[in-house]
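Hi support team,

I submitted a single chain yesterday and got back a structure, but I'm not sure I'm reading the token output correctly. Could someone confirm the output below corresponds to the sequence I sent? I've pasted both exactly as they appear in my results page.

Thanks,
R.
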Amino acid sequence: MSSPKTVSYQDVLEKDFYCKCGAWVYCPDMNGTRLDKTGKEIKTIGEGCTKKDQTGEYMECPECKQFYYLVD
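Hi R., thanks for writing in. Yes, this is the structure output for that exact sequence:
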């Protein structure tokens, strides 16, 4: 596996996400929802689709195991 990469949280919510190796990682159909502080429903990445470590929240390519850390 090469060094970790980053991906925009908003981009993942809005369009299909493919790894640099070409493997599919996530699509918006997998999105969930939650209520924000004001009670408004907002989109979130589906439950169980991300992992966390000491560096932050990330998605992992199922094929090449590349990590993509989520950034704002």
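A quick pointer for reading it: The helical segments are 9-14. Let us know if anything else looks off.

Best,
Support desk
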